[in-house]
């Protein structure tokens, strides 16, 4: 006779698998595509502070995707520290927010084919005369900031040998620390450097002189639903083929990091 606890556990697993396999059905039933975004991601999924409107490459593409599915997009605001739980808990059907594909994330969510690829960049202040090149970052006495939950956090934990790593918990914290001089630089990606150059008069970008960690960006979905992942990949392939990815990337000055294959 089966142990009642084992039977219950097995039943829950079966229920979970069946629930996971119905994403497309849920979207068509509710007529809504729930999209996780980080609304502070300039050029990707950015809420304009003046108008309140969402804009960016992934905003345009998510609207196109919803239209192709015959539904409306509904945006769920999250963060890089929290999006995986939102995807797993079905708070959103898909994360379309320039998510870097790294092993720790791939253990918990499935990724589409990549559509962008960015290396790591440093943002310092124009008044900081001690950081002139990439090699000036990892020096004794330097303080380097990263945003919690981004792929720069584990990367810098692994690579910084002499500088002090400072992990910012809140959006805008690392920028304020660099501007005020509390930290020397913060690590980010290509899209975010464009925000800093466009919206501040104090920021200066330091590019790597050699590849540091070029990272693919893709869309994230919950595990266990092959049909939904295939539909997402179909959309990504079509957006590349018909030129929409290039068009939107050019609009938001991201054409340098588009993955065409």
TrEMBL record:
SUPFAM superfamilies per record? Periplasmic binding protein-like II
Species, as recorded: Polynucleobacter yangtzensis
What keywords is this UniProt entry annotated with?
Signal
Domain (Solute-binding protein family 3/N-terminal): residue spans on this chain: 32-252
Q: Where is the signal peptide?
A: 1-21
Pfam family, any one: SBP_bac_3
Please state what the protein is called. Answer: Cyclohexadienyl dehydratase
This protein's record includes keyword Heme:
no
Superkingdom of source: Bacteria
Gene3D superfamilies named in the record: Periplasmic binding protein-like II
Q: Which SMART domains does the entry link to?
A: PBPb
């Amino acid at each position: 006779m089966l142990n009642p606890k084992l039977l219950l556990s097995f039943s829950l697993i079966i229920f979970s698998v069946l629930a996971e396999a119905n994403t497309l059905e849920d979207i068509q039933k509710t007529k809504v595509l729930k999209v996780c975004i980080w609304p502070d991601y300039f050029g990707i999924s950015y809420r304009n502070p003046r108008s309140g409107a969402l804009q960016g490459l992934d905003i345009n593409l998510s609207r196109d995707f919803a239209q192709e599915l015959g539904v409306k997009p509904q945006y769920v605001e999250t963060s890089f520290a929290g999006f995986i739980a939102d995807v797993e808990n079905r708070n959103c059907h898909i994360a379309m927010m320039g998510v870097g594909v790294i092993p720790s994330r791939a253990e918990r969510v499935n990724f589409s084919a990549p559509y962008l690829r960015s290396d790591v960049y440093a943002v310092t202040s124009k008044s900081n005369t001690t950081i002139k090149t990439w090699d000036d970052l990892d020096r004794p006495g330097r303080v380097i900031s990263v945003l919690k939950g981004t792929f720069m956090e584990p990367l810098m934990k692994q690579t910084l040998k002499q500088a002090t790593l400072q992990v910012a918990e809140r959006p805008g914290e690392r920028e304020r620390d660099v501007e005020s001089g509390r930290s020397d630089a913060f690590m980010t990606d290509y899209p975010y450097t464009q925000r800093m150059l466009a919206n501040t008069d104090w920021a200066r970008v330091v590019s790597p002189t050699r590849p540091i960690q070029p990272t693919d960006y893709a869309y994230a979905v919950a595990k266990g639903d092959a049909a939904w992942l295939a539909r997402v990949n179909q959309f990504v392939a079509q957006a590349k083929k018909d030129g929409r990815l290039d068009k939107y990337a050019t609009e938001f000055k991201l054409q340098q990091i588009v993955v065409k294959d």
